[in-house]
Design goal:
mainly alpha; 5 helices; 139 residues
Length: 139
């Protein structure tokens, strides 16, 4: 899954007109979210928010930013970097949670009380408390 943000490099696109720039942005946003683009012109035009005629005119300029199969090296690289970062954070979070759980292991056991409307005798209440303590205490 791609992150909800994406880095944006603007240095190579200053020569694009407004329509081409918008189309390019929509294409790379689609690529970022799905990891690829379709190769059919009608789908690319739809993603770019252009008519077939507008797409036919803009396609040669926009295609220069992509590979023959509409791959994008920079986005692929950034997706890999984001995945590595996400995996590293997940691993750190998992290890941190494990350490915290070990530190607080004894204090997380619930101190359950018997509700007054259950009408249990003291002997029954002790037996029930003993059962839950032995059953649900971490070993």
């Amino acid at each position: 899954m791609s992150p909800p943000w994406m880095p944006l490099y603007i240095a190579d696109t200053e020569h694009l007109c407004a329509a081409e720039s918008g189309a390019y942005m929509h294409l790379i946003m689609h690529y970022w979210q799905r990891g690829k683009l379709p190769i059919e012109d009608r789908f690319l035009a739809r993603i770019a928010r252009m008519s077939d005629r507008e797409w036919a005119k803009a396609k040669p300029t926009i295609a220069a930013f992509f590979g023959a199969d509409w791959s994008h090296k920079r986005i692929d690289s950034e997706l890999e970097k984001a995945a590595r970062k996400s995996d590293a954070r997940a691993e750190c979070g998992s290890r941190g949670g494990t350490v915290k759980a070990l530190k607080t292991k004894e204090t997380t056991i619930a101190k359950a009380t018997i509700l007054p409307d259950q009408n249990l005798s003291k002997t029954e209440a002790k037996a029930l408390a003993s059962f839950f303590t032995t059953r649900f205490t971490a070993r």
